[in-house]
Structure prediction request, 297 residues.
Amino acid sequence: MFDWDDLRYFVAVARHQSTLAAARALGVNQSTVQRRLAELERKTGQQFVKRLPTGYTLTPAGEALLPVAQQVAQAVAAVEQHIEAARRDIVGVIRLTCPEPLVPGLTRGAILDRFHARYPGLRVEFVLSDKYLDLAKGDVDVALRSGDTDDNALIGRKIADSMWAVYASPKYIARRGQPDSIEAMATHDLVGFDETMPNHRATQWLRKIAPHGRLVARSNSVLGLLYSVKAGVGIAPLPTAIADADPELVRVLGPIPELTRIWRILTTQELRRTPRVSAFFDFMVEEIEALRPVLTG
Prediction:
């Protein structure tokens, strides 16, 4: 019939006899208190408070409701205390694997600070790699991973889109110009992943669009590609999330649709049921809006 949380606003108005004072006590806007109180009355079909020149007073229906509402408020407070105590009892380390370029965004954006504030007994430990580490073997607990996932042992949730474009440095553009099409990349100096990452989508894409292109530098990490491009060695596809934020890089083509993939948070079914991993997984899903700029740019 109504939102149980609306009783909290009713109890606060009854206690303070003012929507402004109730709002201050609850840490919300006065308009929120008024709206939630009106919604409670609308859904129940009863008037619980009456506004007077001196403030708010309870109607007979409000007087009858107040002791029951106070019991509900006390019960909710007890539940909140129980949940908070349970959070503080969760202890341990969450080993999170992700590409190294994500770390500054995750740490500077206060996302992990909020997690540690909620779960002071848990600590996130980064295991940095551009390669897919095996969660099923216990190498890590949780992965932030972009790309196709066909491992049935893993469960996950989409967080954002991984977008890539082609970048060059001003130094390179001054020396060699910049490609005006994907086909023109075959005539430029290219930077790509080395033989340890033959299945990466950027490797396969370069092989497809420039099978005879000149690869002048190789690396086994995204940061290695980025540093080579910044140095003016050549051009390369890079994630927009990190390359667009670098003033020493120029986007010359893209985003490239063929390189777009999904960012997911992944873990195993067994680990998902553990308190520490479940707490971290659910928290990261709650933080999707804050995570998207970190992952997509």
